[in-house]
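The freezer alarm interrupted the setup, so I double-checked each line after restarting. Inputs confirmed:
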Amino acid sequence: MKWNLIRTKVLAALLACLVVGVGGTLALMHYSFARNSQALAVESVSGAQKLFTILESREISKMTAVSEMLIVNPQIRDAFAARDRDLLMKTTVPLYAKLKSEGITNWAFYTPESDATFFLRLHSLARFGDITMKRFMIDEVLRTHAMVTGNELAKGGFGVRIFRPFYDAQGKEIGYLELGEELGQFIHAMKSQTGEDYGLLLSKKFMDRQAWADSNAVWKRRDNWDDNPDFVVADKTTATDSIMRFQGELAAVPAEGTVLEHVRDGNSVFVRGIFPIHDAAGNTVGAMFVVRDISAVYVAMRHTQNILVLLIIVSLTVGIILVLTLLNRLVFRRLRHIITVATRVVGGDYETEIRVGSDDEVGQFEQLFEQFRRVFVDLLAHLPEMQEKG
Amino acid sequence: MGQLYDLKVLIENKIKADGLDAMEVKGKIGLRSGRMLAFIKADTPDDPAAVAKLKQAVKDVLNISA
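Predicted 3D structure, all chains:
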């Protein structure tokens, strides 16, 4: 390849355009995908957080309504007021089975003493008479004698709970009622609504080792305390732990949540985000992971990218062929003809003329060169005569 | 006869022997050497510089050493 040729330079410039076009398209599509995946991840985190809040409020409302019914139920009220555990158990166990099927997994009665002793746990009938662990919600209900709601870790697991005073027929406070739902079951409800995967992490800083072990024993789950150094996985909607990878501090997760990154797993592409979970005391006790499968978006982007790249390659290849063909027909071939004629004139051929193809720039040069050729031939014809005179 | 004329004869013989386009070959040699072969006659005086240029042109165009 001769780099001094115009043809080579034009070809190199067009190939450079091709490379820049393809590279630019790839970069643009990559940028576009990154922007879209970020937007989808932000939407997922924000949507999941809203959905979680809605579910939390809805379940608190549900448990509040249930507690209102329980409080005015004379059989339950009188059995609890009489401290008749067997009668209370007999009255509430059938009801607990129904409530459990509706998601209310924890139900307990407490005596009104300042240490809030368990009188009856419907979710763990064999255990009673023990003093509850130090809990913000109990402290609050003891202090205010009003209903307290929120998320809290107890021996029955981490859940959204309501805690309220229980009164006898005369309106005297006879103890406390607790209803709760495990937060873990929220994420399964969320998955069924959004199709996204979720994972609930709880920070060990706010957890009691024994309480977690007790909770797992109650629900017959593997004790996973030692799986991670700083947090435990309370529940997840996927079999894989890969969505739970997190190196930062859970307490540092911003209130509105944050997008982590997008990850590839085989042919699938996911975006991950995380938002904090607060307990009733306002502590950031954990976080929820949101994982959205954006493989369809990725595949669509790759498809568009391939079409664009193919389109650019085809159009620029056609362009290169067209430009080189035009250059050959309009310039190079006519220049070669001029060179051939000029060479033949010097070789003694005074008859071959330069064809003037058109009146374009090269045509003007052809015309000028033809005029020059005629003058030159005329000069050669008269040279002997001029020499004789000279 | 001088060297220039001998070279001219050599060129014409080569063209004839190989069946080359005489005008084109003579033109190329003329352009390279800066001298029209038509003006080289038997009595054309030799000029060392012109002879050297013509030899080089013959070598370039016909690939033969004169």
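Quick read of the result. The beta strands of chain A are 106-110, 118-121, 148-154, 157-167, 173-182, 197-203, 231-236, 258-265, 268-278, 284-293.
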